[in-house]
Every structure is written in structure tokens, then in C-alpha cells.
Amino acid sequence: MRRVIPYGRQSISPEDLDAVARVLSGDWLTTGPAVAEFERDLAAHAGGASAVAVTSGTAALHCGYAAVGIGPGDEVVTTPMTFVATAATAALLGARVVFADTSEDTANLCPDAAAAAVTARTRVVAAVDYAGHPAELDRLAAVAHDAGALLLEDASHSIGSAWHGRPVGSIADLTTFSFFPTKNVTTAEGGAVATTDAALDRRAREFRNHGLVRDRDRQREPDEGGWHQEVHEFGLNYRLPDVLCALGSSQLRRLAEFKRRRAELHRRYHEALADLDGLRLPVTRPGADPMWHLYPVRVLDERRRAAYEHLRAIGIGVQVNYVPVYWHPVFADLGYRRGACPNAERFYREQLSLPLFPGLTDAEVDRVIAGVRSFFGQ
Ligand SMILES: *Cc1c(COP(=O)(O)O)cnc(C)c1O
């Protein structure tokens, strides 16, 4: 039996294993030097923005929104074409989530739709770099800033990507990453918040660690004693352990190699599938230098489900990314209605992610290509 080809998979090297083993047998399993080192390594890949390592991409979003201080009465404008966490973390803080439609070609948040959705209550515009292709970050930043809000970029798909020559991480007011195994680099579970704003950085760091204030200059009772720390605002424990940070630093050393292989696989799919009627391939906008996390095709003529079932039946683990967020019952129960974002809903009905990960072999890509072509009778 040939192995089922998954849609995404981690790539773990002997160096990754050594890096983890070294930390495991050392003095610090968590909150030690590997955390600071991983944060420096992340900053180097994020155009110098300060990075705060946390336990997941979801935790990163929660820290990011908490750093802005959003709560009841505030609105967050975001895209429905994302994983539910982009919206759920804002909702958990009490904000109202407002969904704006996506651009027809990239499935990224449309700046015009975002501009129409912002109000005086908007505190954050949250964009997602779908599949690794950067959103229109400059236009979205202008939309957010004109409304007195901040731009948060959920870059769970796009560490390693650049927009008009600038690396993702240094462009938006806040950028969040995920290091889940299928993402561009992994720490098993993990994530980070990056920002060039010192106040947002401090608030994200404190939220990650119970809200504890250790800086004596800011404490209300600085003379309590050497053990003293204070909580001024509630936080959580979202600390990423040293063991996982060591894996992250080791993975980042292979980021360029991962990007090259993902680009090569993207090119092979593009060349081999371009002639198929009934299939649309992902576009690359001028100015975008994506590190492709997904290869999202669009199956036209209401045939997406049939294509999914055909490919799954022959051992090709395609995936659908994503059901529009407001279709989830938790949002439907709050009164969100289908039909609100037609571009995103049409995209969802057509979308299929083909396998894409650095360890995908040439023979396996050929198997995927043959499987897709066979669905179209080619
Ligand atoms: C993966 C992902 C998340 C959540 O990240 P986790 O590390 O799984 O918590 C959030 N947003 C997007 C767009 C994602 O792809």
C-alpha cells in the first residue's frame, strides 16, 4: 500500500533532534536562554521587529489583541477566509468581529471591503496572508490608520514571505506567526507576536506571563522585597518552553531551503496543471514574494467535493482551507448570516489544497498531478 500523501508535514533533521536533546539535558526546560535566542532568530527573519514566543498561533493572536487592549464595545474587522482562531480570540476578549469580503484572486482581505466595514469603534483590522501570499498590507494599514485602528497581520501561513521587498513581520503594527507542524517552520505547537512598537511588545510579553510586572520602576510596591512581582492586568501562561524554542531556532536555519523547495513544488504544479479547463491556479500579485504554505486550487462547476473525494480515494490527502468563519455555528448563533461575503463563500465552494511540504518527493508530486489530471479525464 502506497502511503497516503498528507497535505502538509513537518521536516525534522538530525540537527533539529540534536538541538532539542541538548536543551532537554540542560538546566532550563522553560523560560531560559533558548527562548531569548529563538526570539532573536525570529527578529532576524522578521525585518528586525521584536518577537515574543508563545505556545501557539492562537495564543499569539490572543496576546496581540490583548496588547492592543480590545474589549467589549470594540470592533475587529477581519476576513472570513481564515482559521477560526483569527476571529475567535478577538471574540473571547469581548470585541465584536466584523467580517469584510476577500479579493477575488488572492482570497486575502479586500482593502475596499475593509474600508467599508470600519467604524469609529474599530480598534484592529486583522488581515491574513492566505496560503503564504501577503495581503495588501500597505493599503490595509492605511485603511486601519485612517480609522484610528491598528493593522494586525495573521502571518500563520507566511513566515519567510515578503511584500514589496519587506519581510513579513516588520510591516503591520502587529504580526502573528504559528509554528504548528504543517506551517512553514514548526516547534510542534508554538507561535509568536512580532511588533516594532515597544509598548505593544511589553504588553504582549506581560500577557504571555500572567500579566506579571517585574520592572521595579513600574511597580506600586517596589520595596516589598526581592521576590516581589505584581499583576496590573490579567494575563495567561502562554510561555513557549526552551525545548521547543531550540527546535524553532534550528528550523529557522532551514527557512531558505524550505522556501526554495516549496517554490519548486509550486512551479511543478503550475506547469503541469495550467492547461486544465475547470481548474483555477493560485495567482501571485506584483510585489508579492510568497513563501507558499498551501497550493490552493479552485475546482469550478460545483465539482470541488467530487474532486476531494476522488483524490482522497487514491491516497492523496487534499484539504479544504477554510470554511468561511461566520458559517461556524458559534457565529451563526450570534446572528451572522451566510451570503455576507460572496467572494469568500464562492472561494470556499471551489477551494482545494494540494499537498505541499518540503519533504514531498518528485515522484509524489507526479502522483498528485496524475491524480488531479485523471479527475478531469486527462
Ligand atoms: C494555524 C493558524 C492559526 C492558529 O495557529 P495554531 O498554532 O494552530 O494555534 C491561526 N490563523 C491561521 C490563518 C492559521 O493558519
Number of structural units classed as domains: 2
- Tell me the Rg in angstroms: 21 Å
CATH superfamily of the largest domain: Type I PLP-dependent aspartate aminotransferase-like (Major domain)
Count of distinct strands: 15
- Give the C-level CATH assignment of the largest domain: Alpha Beta
Percentage of helical residues?
Answer: 25-40%
Largest sheet: 7 strands, mixed
Reading the helices and strands in chain order gives HHEHEHEHEHEEEEEHEEHHEEEHHHEH
Compute the average pLDDT: 97
Indicate the CATH topology of the largest domain: Aspartate Aminotransferase, domain 2
Q: What are the low-pLDDT stretches, counting only 5+ consecutive residues below 50?
A: none
CATH architecture of the largest domain: 3-Layer(aba) Sandwich
> What is the 3D form?
globular
| Category from helices, strands and their pairing | alpha/beta
Which small molecules are bound?
pyridoxal-5'-phosphate
**What is the spatial order of strands in the main beta sheet?**
1-9-8-5-4-2-3
Q: How many alpha or pi helices?
A: 13
Terminal CA distance: 24 Å
The gist of it:
This protein has 378 residues and is of the alpha/beta class.
Notes on the structure:
This protein is α/β, with parallel strands linked by helices. It folds into two domains: 14-252, 3-Layer(aba) Sandwich (Aspartate Aminotransferase, domain 2), CATH 3.40.640; 255-375, Alpha-Beta Complex (Aspartate Aminotransferase, domain 1). The protein is built from 13 helices and 15 strands. A seven-stranded mixed beta sheet has the order 1-9-8-5-4-2-3. A three-stranded antiparallel beta sheet has the order 7-6-13, with no helix packed on it. Strands 12-14-15 form a three-stranded antiparallel beta sheet. Helix 4 (85-92) links the parallel strand 2 and strand 3 (96-99). The radius of gyration is 21 Å and the shape is globular. The mean pLDDT is 97. The structure holds pyridoxal-5'-phosphate. Pyridoxal-5'-phosphate (PLP) binds next to helix 3 and helix 4.
